[in-house]
Design brief:
It is built from 15 helices and 13 strands. By secondary structure, it is of the alpha/beta class. The protein folds into 2 domains: 214 residues, Glycogen Phosphorylase B (Rossmann fold, 3-Layer(aba) Sandwich), CATH 3.40.50.2000; 174 residues, Glycogen Phosphorylase B (Rossmann fold), CATH 3.40.50. The C terminus is likely disordered.
Length: 408
């Protein structure tokens, strides 16, 4: 039986989404008797200066943490140096540790990790499985990142696509992402949709029983929440517009839990706009996610329309698990909106029409029956299609012939 050697910039005990997902998967595989190695950095997502142990074993998973520069996520130049140094360290480590018959599981932090992992897989006669949390360089192009355009962007895209076409499997998060790769001539038979998941311990907590409502001074106000990372792919202007339209409603509060450059920008914007019905809270530990995700009466999920098919906001899975309705701000054809519509788990499609969104909130805030029905729909979606057990079973099918050649 070959080993699984996973590579991603973040892993346990980091709290970021890719770290938690990869930790869940590798610990699940290790518990089933699979030999697993995680190759990662010594940083935490929000603490680039962290100095995690270079080598340890946790819950059956061997962990090798690599040295890299530690400029953090605040600037593009520093982030580029962090990426390049991690690429170099990951390449050397993979070449040293990967053996014939192993499977390399490459995530997408840093971007284009599949190119590095694919080169090692070819040399070592290993298999490559790409776990695509997002698609680069398309995202960088659409965000107009300097230097990632024209001939450079085309060269990066060509290298990325070649690594995907040569892979044993490319795991994507939604149907629109799968369609995008099909348009890039990545074979459909090598593309598998496996949804991300929420922490398996997340359950709905009622308003009256939730201590965070009291701790955060929210009382009986109708809470519109946003939980997780807020980055450049999300529509900050639409969020600010929505808050401004509801500024006269003292019984409505906005709650942002998480981090990211976009959240820092939004803090400045709300202060400049003199908005007082807004709270910002740090990421919450996993053991408090049931409470924190249950505080909002309605959750916001935002994705710029040009990002559809390139990113799947994974915060939707925690919202479903917490049994709360979703108000999606983005393309009406989005995979998120299709989930919401299919299960009656939130607001109807309204794109980025913030006047309509504000009117829906005002009309819905006292309709407890409607909100309960949507919450029930959300929890039903989680229990039947979007929970951790289902996704881990799907991953086992992806890996099965890869780690057990006799099953191929």
């Amino acid at each position: 039986m070959g080993r699984i050697v996973a590579v991603n910039r973040y892993y346990w005990p980091d709290h970021s989404a890719t770290s938690q997902l990869l930790t869940d998967l590798l610990e699940h595989l290790a518990a089933g008797g699979q030999e697993v190695l995680a190759i990662t950095s010594r940083q935490r997502y929000d603490r680039p200066d962290a100095a995690l142990a270079a080598s340890e074993t946790h819950r059956g998973v061997g962990i090798r943490r690599l040295w890299s520069t530690r400029f953090g996520r605040s600037g593009l130049a520093g982030r580029a140096f962090d990426y390049l140094s991690f690429y170099a360290a990951a390449l050397a480590t993979l070449l040293f540790r990967v053996r014939r018959g192993d499977t390399i599981l490459a995530m997408t932090d840093p971007p284009l990790l599949s190119v590095v992992a694919g080169a090692v897989a070819a040399v070592k006669r290993a298999r490559l499985v790409n776990w695509c949390q997002d698609l680069f360089p398309e995202i960088a192009e659409r965000l107009e990142v300097p230097m990632v355009r024209g001939a450079v962007a085309r060269a990066l895209l060509s290298a990325r696509n070649a690594s995907f076409r040569a892979a044993h499997a490319n795991v994507v998060l939604c149907d629109t992402m799968a369609s995008h790769l099909l348009g890039q001539r990545v074979p459909a038979e090598r593309t598998v949709i496996v949804h991300n998941w929420a922490d398996g311990d997340i359950t709905p907590v009622s308003r009256d029983a939730n201590p965070l409502r009291r701790e955060w001074g929210l009382g009986d106000r109708f809470v519109i929440g946003y939980s997780g990372n807020l980055g450049r792919a999300h529509d900050h202007d639409a969020l600010l517009d929505l808050m401004q339209r509801l500024r006269g409603h003292d019984d409505i509060a906005f709650l942002f839990i998480g981090g990211g450059a976009g959240l820092d920008r939004l803090k400045v914007m709300t202060t400049a706009a003199l908005l007082r019905n807004v709270q910002f809270r740090a990421y919450q530990p996993r053991e408090r996610l049931s409470q924190s995700l249950s505080v909002p009466d309605v959750h916001l999920v935002s994705l710029r329309e040009e990002m559809e098919g390139l990113i799947m906001p994974s915060k939707i899975y925690g919202i479903l698990a917490a049994g709360r309705p979703t108000l999606f701000l983005g393309s009406a054809q989005s995979s998120i909106q299709r989930i919401v519509d299919s299960f009656g788990a939130g607001a109807p499609a309204m794109g980025t029409d913030m006047a309509t969104a504000a009117a829906w909130i005002v009309a819905s805030k006292h309709d407890r029956r409607l909100l309960a029905r949507m919450g029930d729909g959300a929890r039903h979606a989680y229990e039947t299609e979007f929970n951790r057990a289902i996704s881990l079973e799907q991953f086992e099918r992806v890996f099965g012939p890869a780690i057990r050649p006799e099953a191929a």
